[in-house]
Design a protein that fits this description.
The chain has three helices and four strands, in the order E-H-E-H-E-E-H. By secondary structure, it is α+β, with helices and mostly antiparallel strands. It has a four-stranded mixed beta sheet with strand order 1-2-4-3, covered by helices on one side. Helix 1 links the parallel strand 1 and strand 2. The two termini are 24 Å apart.
């Protein structure tokens, strides 16, 4: 990326299409070796599995599922259904161990 990369990128409800290559291109352009990316979305279709595969392979991210149950103490919304939501953490493969 040109210029300084962001330390943290947050995204919610960005996974509407089955092809999310443009989202991955944008994340890569805004990311640097120390950038943490957190994405939260509703599981809608098989595009999420393709997104994870592309993020790990073509785009060089390390991807980790973050348990929504572990986040339950962070919200007061008692109507949320954790099983339909996914939270992914993406980092550069080089620095992922250093961040966690």
């Amino acid at each position: 990326s040109q210029g300084r990369a962001f330390d943290l990128l947050l995204g919610a409800d960005l996974m509407y299409a089955s092809d999310n290559s443009a989202l991955l291109e944008t994340l890569r352009a805004l990311s640097g070796p120390h950038t943490q990316v957190l994405l939260c979305f509703s599981a809608r279709h098989e595009g999420e599995a393709r997104f994870v595969a592309l993020a790990r392979g073509t785009y060089g991210f390390s991807v980790r599922d973050v348990s929504m149950e572990s986040m339950s103490n962070c919200t007061s919304d008692t109507t949320a259904q954790p099983s339909i939501y996914k939270l992914l953490s993406l980092c550069s493969k080089v620095t992922f161990r250093d961040i966690m």
